[in-house]
Amino acid sequence: MNDKTVANTLYKSREKIQPRDVHGFFARLRVASVWWLLGMYYLGPWLNWNGRQAILFDLPARKFYIFGLELWPQDFVFLAWLLIIAALTLFYVTTLAGRVWCGYACPQTVWTEVFMMMERWTEGPRNKRIKLDKSPWTREKIIRRGSKHLLWLVFALWTGFTFVGYFTPIRDLGARLVEFQLGPWEMFWIFFYSLATWGNAGFLREQVCLYMCPYARFQSAMFDKDTLIISYDEKRGEPRGARKKGQKPEALGDCVDCKQCVQVCPTGIDIRDGLQYECIACGGCIDVCDAVMDKMGYEKGLIRYTTQHEMNGYKTHILRPRVVVYTVIWVSMILLYLYALANRSPIQMDVIKERNPIYREISGNRIENDYTLKIMNKDHADHVYTVSVEGLPEAEVKTIPKTIRVKSGELRPVAARVMVPRANLKQPEYRFKIHIQATDAPEIQRVEDAQFNTPVNE
Ligand code: SF4
Ligand code: SF4
């Protein structure tokens, strides 16, 4: 067996899937979700909040803005926490409602839906597209395919531009784009993201779900017999078989074997073969099968949202131990997050002690220790701060500059000299506290521990 034969044996070449158009409740729900999510994505960076871009991940300044929330590198934990809550929400929703994320909200589904919409506008419905795939390169094929790729390209570039607009102020980005003044990294990311959108939504499509997405692989671990799934009612549908409209032969079940559920499936599976990891729960097969049942005069729901328990004749339990545990963890995480966010200090201070010399004897028989205070104003307004010390006998503190004015968003180093009468010092070192407070907003304050060294020997 040569190398080529081995390759042919191991890998089945991909058969292009041309899903049939589908109309119905779940199709409308998916389209509504697509417009809502894409609307948020494309409009998001154009929204303003307090005179600046509402959502901006300003990497050079190392600050993230999300409406009224301003996150600094020190607040990275809040971003990480938010991602953990998002992951937990996904697990929670999956346990309750199966793969609704995949069917209605995953970016891969959402962008593929729009790309398929453009494909239908330019190349027509499923039958026409299949014919076009097989036809030679005629004038019509070049025009139809060319228009499709032109639409895809414009949309992909717009997507890439919007993506970069979340990291660079989008109005400025747009102005520099028309003047051909974009920086190399901005160009790179616009083209890279555009290419990724074009490739994923235009060409790879279901292969991203089938071969690349890790969630598709491990979501079964979150499923139980009470999780909502899309399922074909085998007991009712089998034995399947064709028949005339309005007839109901005794020997046959309700499935008329029209295969429309297979033709609408974006991942190309037959839901009648049972629950499969390829099913992204888009609901397309429910819509189309309901329409067939309607036409035949049968009850709808041969394919439906259900649970394994319901299918096997048992009661479905919504409240079950894992759901209760997830609910408690999920709600607690969100409440804790909101509490921590609301109580986030708008001021940060690092105290760095001067070590050379470790202390100094100065006039008036006093001992002085020097510090650098790195003050970061994370508030929306500028502030003037006062510095005081606690826990040192008769200590005096002087700062350079005397008036500590820190602009909003500024990190300012300030020299601080702490002086104590020598007679008051009885031990080689003291732990004390440096207290900083905004003069115009006393509630904005911060206390940090520091060390004071003395010439006293024990
Ligand atoms: S659409 Fe319904 S009736 Fe047609 S093959 Fe699928 S399950 Fe059977
Ligand atoms: S089997 Fe049905 S719900 Fe699952 S992906 Fe295919 S069409 Fe969508």
Number of helix segments? 16
On the 0 to 100 scale, the average pLDDT is: 92
- The oligomeric status of these chains comes to single chain
The coarse overall form would be elongated
Q: What fraction of the residues are assigned to beta strands by DSSP?
A: 15-25%
The unique ligands bound to this protein are:
iron/sulfur cluster
Structural class: alpha+beta
The low-confidence parts are: 1-7
Major sheet size, sense and barrel closure: 5 strands, antiparallel
End-to-end Cα distance, whole Å, is 86 Å
Could you say how many structural domains there are in total?
A: 2
Helix content class:
40-55%
Number of strands: 16
Please compute the radius of gyration using only Cα atoms. 32 Å
Comma- or semicolon-separated keywords:
Immunoglobulin-like; single chain; binds iron/sulfur cluster; disordered N terminus; 20% strand; 4-stranded antiparallel sheet; alpha+beta; 2 domains; 5-stranded antiparallel sheet; 458 residues
Give the SSE layout.
Layout: H1 3-10, H2 25-43, E1 48-49, E2 52-53, E3 55-58, E4 63-66, E5 69-71, H3 76-97, H4 100-105, H5 107-123, H6 126-134, H7 139-165, H8 170-178, H9 184-204, H10 206-212, H11 214-218, E6 229-232, H12 234-237, H13 260-263, H14 284-296, E7 303-306, H15 308-311, H16 321-342, E8 347-353, E9 360-362, E10 366-377, E11 383-390, E12 396-400, E13 404-406, E14 411-421, E15 429-438, E16 445-453
Antiparallel strand pairs: 1-2, 3-4, 4-5, 6-7, 8-10, 9-10, 10-14, 11-13, 11-15, 12-14, 15-16
Helix pairs in contact: 2-5, 3-16, 5-7, 5-9, 7-8, 7-9
The structure holds iron/sulfur cluster (2 copies).
Residues 230, 264-267, 269, 271, 279-285 line the site of one iron/sulfur cluster (SF4).
